[in-house]
C-alpha cells in the first residue's frame, strides 16, 4: 500500500467494519446547550500539508507503534523485539481463523466492541489526515495496522447472522499474568446470534447493519458476562453511527433517511455528549455535519433539515469544549485537561480534542467563519487551540511535567499495567507464577512504546504503579484516538480533498 493520496481512496471501505460491533451497542449522555450562527470573514482555507511540527510528528510515530505491541497472531515483519507469535489457535473451535486482531489493553482479551471503535477511529484519521500521515511516513503503518483488525473482524462474521464478538474468557484471563506468547488457558469464543477488500468489508458492513437493526438491543444485556468489562449503555447511537458511515461509503440516500428518521428516537438533539467507545453520538454529529457543510446541494431539503439538527448539536459539543464559551464544561483540571472519568481519564479529552480539530478543519474548508455559543462567536482557530492544549497536556505540559505517552520525552510512566511489557522476554512463567512481575518493584523490562496510559486524577496526581490499572493501563482505543489527534495537528490540513 502506497502513501500517496490515491491509496486513501483504496482504504475508504475499511472504516465500515465499525459495524461489527458499533451497530450492536450503546450511549451515555452529558449535557451542554448552544445554537448555530456564523458570520464575518472566514479564516483561510488550508492548503496541502505544510511544515511538520516536530513534537507532534515524533509523538505520532511513537503512538503508532503501540498497535504492533498489541497484535495477536503470527506477526509479520515484527518490529517489537520482545513480542512474538501468540494466540495462533484462536477461533479453531469454530473452525475459524481469529488469530489476528488486537489485544484490548494490558490483558489478552479480544473484545469486538471496543476493537471495532478502534478500527473506525483509525479509519477516520486516515481518511481525514492520510496526507499528513504520509508526510510523516506513518500512512502505510496506519493502513497495515487497520487491516490487521479488519482481517480479524471479517473472519469473525462467517455467516449473515453470526458474529463472534469476543475471544477469551475475561475471568480466566484476569487470573493470569503472563506473556501472550506463553498463554495455555482456554480462549472460548462468544457469539452473537485495495478495492476488492473494500468491497468485501462493505458487504459485511451492510449485512451486519441489517442484522443489528432487525435485532435491536444492547449486546451486554444479551451477553451479561461482558458487562463487567465493556458494559453497553444503549444501542441507538451505534445504529446512527453505522448508518452515517454507510452513507459516506455508498452515497445511498436510504442511509441518510435512516439517520433522519431514527434521529427522533436516538439522536438526543441539543444535548451534547462525550465521544467514546460506548457513545458514538458526538462522532456521528460531526460526521453528518460534513454532509451538511459540503454536500447539501446533493441531498433533498428535508434531508438537509435533519442534517442541520445534527450539525447544531455538533456545534453545541464544540461550545462545551471551548474554555471561554458561556456553555463550556467546568469539568477540567486546574491545568486545563477536560476531565470526565476517574478511570482512563485521558480517553475523553483526547477524543474531544480529535473531534475539535476535525470540526475546525471542516469549518475552514467549507468557509464557515464562526460557531456561535450563546451569542459569543468562535473561530476554527479557537477549536484548534483547544485541541492543541489537550495534546500538549498529554505530552508533558502539565503540573506533573510528565508525558502520558510512553516513550515520549524524558519523563513518562515506567510501571505500565501491561503483561507483555512487565515480564522479561526470556522469562519462563506460567499463568499464576507470572504475578511476581505484576508485583515487582522494578520498572518494566520492556517499554510499551506509544502506549497512552489512563492518565491523571482530577487533582492532577499520578501514581506510577503497575497495580494501579485505573491510571497506568493503556488501551488500543486510546491509541486510535491519540493517533487521530496527532495526525490532525502534525501539520496544516487539507481535509476536503481527502474525503468528499
TrEMBL record:
Keyword annotations from UniProtKB, A to Z: Carbohydrate metabolism, Cellulose degradation, Glycosidase, Hydrolase, Membrane, Polysaccharide degradation, Transmembrane, Transmembrane helix
Transmembrane segments: 12-32
Main enzyme class: hydrolase
Active site location: 417
Sample GO molecular function, one term: cellulase activity
Record PANTHER family: ENDO-1,4-BETA-GLUCANASE
Protein name according to UniProt: Endoglucanase
Species for this entry: Chenopodium quinoa (Quinoa)
Lineage: Eukaryota, Viridiplantae, Streptophyta, Embryophyta, Tracheophyta
